[in-house]
Structure formats: C-alpha cells, structure tokens
Specification:
The chain is an alpha+beta fold. 59% of the residues lie in helices and 13% in strands. The chain contains five helices and three strands; from the N terminus they run H-H-E-H-H-E-E-H.
Length: 105
C-alpha cells in the first residue's frame, strides 16, 4: 500500500503538528488556532494551507472566518498505512509464540 509522502511531510514540521493537534479537539477558526503560538496568525494560515493541500484538514467559510477541521479521509490514509505494519508485527509475534520462543525461563 502506497501513501503520499506529503502526508508525512506536512506533519514533519513541529509547529504544523501542533496546529494539527489543536484541531483534534474540534473545528477551529484560524484565530483560535493561532492563539498562544509563537508564530504569527498569517504563519498559522500557511501551515493550515500545507495541511489542507496534504489532505489532512478541510475548511469551510463561516461568515468572514475560515473554520478548519481534521479531514477523516487523510487521517484514514495514514492509519491504513500504519495498520499494515501492525498486522505484520502481530503475525511475527504469533509465529514466535507458536515456535516456543515465548517460553518463560
């Protein structure tokens, strides 16, 4: 399963990751997201644009404001990609147990 590298690239920046994490609590306007950040509101808007271009957030107009939220489709793509490794790890663990490698001393 292939995953777009821009998904992980978008989350590689620590500030962008914090912006994304703030959206986990629910939809927020740029001003709410930017509150308390050491970067300017326009900088937060740029981070949101990168996250949106990567498919990780969506936005909608609410009067004169833009309200952003996590896009479940983008998040689902990351989760599906990570889940493939979880299955491989569980299969390896099961094989180890079945072969007696899990015996206690």
């Amino acid at each position: 399963m292939a995953i777009q590298t821009n998904l992980f690239g978008a989350l590689a920046d620590p500030t962008r990751r914090q912006v994304f994490e703030r959206l986990a609590a629910g939809p927020r306007a740029v001003g709410e997201i930017a509150r308390g950040f050491p970067v300017s509101r326009p900088a937060v808007s740029q981070h949101l644009k990168v996250l949106k271009d990567a498919g990780l957030v969506t936005d909608r107009a609410e009067g004169t404001r833009r309200v952003y939220s996590i896009d479940p489709h983008g998040l689902g793509a990351i989760r599906a990609w990570l889940d493939q490794f979880w299955g491989v790890a569980l299969e390896a663990f099961q094989r180890e147990i079945e072969q007696g490698g899990g015996k206690e001393p």
